[in-house]
């Protein structure tokens, strides 16, 4: 099944928020956005760059703005989509179709499009080079299998270990004091 058919299936699927997501889709289609399918859901793009997505969940439905951090949000409706995980994405949740003010939603969409066109995006921040705690380095040198497994971890996970180990080490030092 091609992406366009999958998008139609998404919007025609029987679910409690069908009317709401169809209305959001009709608003998105009034803009310059191109409708695509990513992660099994409709995502709207400009020049193949993600601008927004429309989603339905168990308790609500809404719009994800990929660089929503830059939206002015005069109504104060945007929430961080995944606290602690995403820095730029913002989510506008709705519980009923009656909550949708078409003019406001369209205004947020147009602002998001304008931001994307002018390159207003939160870029990935370079991760500072990781500094392995000295005693962890020594421990891994004494256990080649542990060292091999540790190197298979992503830099992000390695950093988490460094931070955790350093915290535990500080707590031990403080408890002795």
Automatic annotation (TrEMBL):
Q: Name one Pfam family in it.
A: OmdA
Q: Which domain of life is it from?
A: Bacteria
Against InterPro entries, the record matches this protein to: YdhG-like
Q: Where is the YdhG-like domain?
A: 21-113
Q: What is the protein's given name?
A: DUF1801 domain-containing protein
Native organism is Sediminicola arcticus
């Amino acid at each position: 099944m091609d992406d366009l058919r999958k998008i139609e299936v998404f919007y025609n699927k029987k679910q409690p928020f069908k009317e709401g997501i169809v209305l959001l889709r009709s608003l998105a289609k009034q803009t310059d956005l191109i409708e695509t399918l990513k992660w099994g859901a409709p995502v709207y793009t400009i020049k193949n760059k993600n601008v927004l997505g429309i989603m339905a969940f168990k308790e609500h439905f809404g719009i994800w703005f990929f660089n929503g951090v830059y939206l002015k949000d005069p109504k104060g409706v945007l929430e961080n989509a995944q606290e602690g995980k995403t820095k730029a994405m913002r989510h506008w949740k709705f519980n009923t179709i009656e909550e949708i003010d078409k003019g406001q939603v369209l205004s947020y969409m147009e602002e998001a499009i304008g931001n994307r066109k002018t390159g207003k995006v939160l870029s990935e921040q370079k991760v500072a080079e990781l500094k392995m705690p000295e005693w962890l380095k020594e421990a891994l040198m004494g256990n080649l299998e542990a060292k091999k497994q540790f190197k298979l971890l992503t830099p992000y996970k390695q950093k988490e270990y460094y931070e955790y180990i350093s915290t535990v080490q500080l707590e031990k030092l403080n408890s002795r004091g």
